[in-house]
Design brief:
single chain; alpha/beta; 6-stranded mixed sheet; two-stranded antiparallel ribbon; 11 helices; globular
Length: about 375
């Protein structure tokens, strides 16, 4: 029998999928365990009932902070779809515990602890998280009296001084309350796959509002800490969903998501292109087309919006220029590329100017009455 390949040959091309993205709607709970075993290093739960059964099986009674943290996490409305729980031995630091998880998976965004740790250990964890290539966000409880929380050299004071944007620190009655805030953020992300959200003024399930005076709230918020309080008897509100740097949680989240999506778009163009990309301005156009497709999605989602550019010059864009749809892309010509970069087969850098849509947090209502 003669082969038919000489007449019609079938070429099967397998297209590589992009690298698995970080799950921006999944939280990680780190649990110190006096009876640690390797089997407890990482488990995944899809509901409060699942988490309750799993934690009890692993030796954590309903009275423990680990159990309470998992229940508070899933008490959010909308409820998150997944919680990762990682037990670690008492000899490990939180930094070591987090690194042990990252050796297994990076499929999470929120990180909270289910046990008390010293301020020094928490600051070390914040520093470590801020330096990771993989983006994530710490959810930290601020326990103690309101005066102690804002005192000089307190955890919040030191986080604020460091200008960290990788932590959401909230005044809380218990360590496990931080998991409730994390669950709220993860649940909102899961429910807003096609629209933007802000963590400010959201209700946090599973915990009670703090009984604080306005002056105590002001003192905590002056250091960009967060509070969960009751306004007007019926409104239970998280204020203001901020990191100690002053950046809002949603601002950091969406910039992390944009950075990852742009990176994946670049790798996809390089790795899955059947033809080589020449070192010419045509290649820059292909990159910018791919990036524009990513960024217009964030415009449609409500993350980016048309506004005047207020930053330093970006390529041909100057302060005061209007950035349509919230983004503008620019690349220098390959005619100006250095010989060293050309010999190294580097693309010319693509610069992006982004203008965020922002979010409203207050309003003044003027009532004019004619008598």
């Amino acid at each position: 029998m003669l082969s038919i390949d000489t007449i019609a040959r079938v070429a099967v091309n397998v297209v590589r999928s992009a690298a698995a993205p970080t799950s921006f709607d999944t939280g990680l709970l780190l649990v110190k365990d006096a009876n640690f075993t390797a089997a407890k290093r990482l488990k995944s739960y899809a509901s409060s009932a699942e988490a309750a059964a799993g934690l009890i099986e692993d030796g954590f009674a309903a009275s423990t902070e680990a159990y309470k943290a998992a229940q508070k996490y899933f008490a959010a409305s909308p409820s998150p779809a997944c919680l990762l729980v990682s037990c670690y031995p008492a000899a490990e630091t939180p930094v070591q515990a987090l690194d042990a998880v990252l050796d297994i998976t990076s499929d999470f965004y929120g990180v909270a602890l289910a046990d008390s740790r010293t301020d020094t250990e928490l600051l070390a964890l914040d520093t470590h998280v801020s330096g990771l290539d993989k983006p994530c966000m710490l959810f930290l409880p601020l326990t103690g009296t309101p005066a102690a929380v804002v005192a000089a050299n307190s955890l919040l004071d030191r986080l604020h001084a460091a200008g960290t944007k990788r932590a959401v620190a909230t005044y809380a009655a218990a360590v496990s309350d931080a998991a409730a805030v994390m669950g709220t953020a993860m649940g909102l992300q899961a429910a807003h796959a096609a629209s933007a959200f802000s963590l400010c003024y959201k209700s946090v399930g599973g915990i009670q509002p703090s009984d604080l005076t306005q002056s105590q709230v002001d003192a905590i918020q002056a250091l960009n800490g967060n509070v969960y309080v009751t306004r007007g008897y019926t409104h239970h509100l998280l204020e203001k969903g901020s990191t100690p740097s002053g950046y809002r949680y949603d601002e950091v989240l969406y910039l992390d998501m944009i950075a990852q999506d742009l990176q994946n778009a670049a790798v996809t163009l390089l790795a899955e292109n059947q033809d080589k990309l020449p070192q010419t301005d045509d290649a820059s156009a292909q990159f910018m087309n791919a990036f524009s497709a990513v960024l217009i999605g964030y415009t449609n989602r409500g993350v980016l919006a048309t506004a005047a550019w207020r930053g330093p010059a970006v390529g041909s864009f100057q302060a005061g220029d209007y950035i349509e749809n919230g983004f503008a892309l620019w690349a220098d010509s390959y005619d100006n590329q250095s010989e060293a970069d050309r010999a190294a087969h580097k693309a010319v850098p693509i610069q992006a100017a982004l203008t965020l849509a922002g979010s409203l947090e207050s309003i003044v209502i003027t009532v004019n009455v004619r008598i």
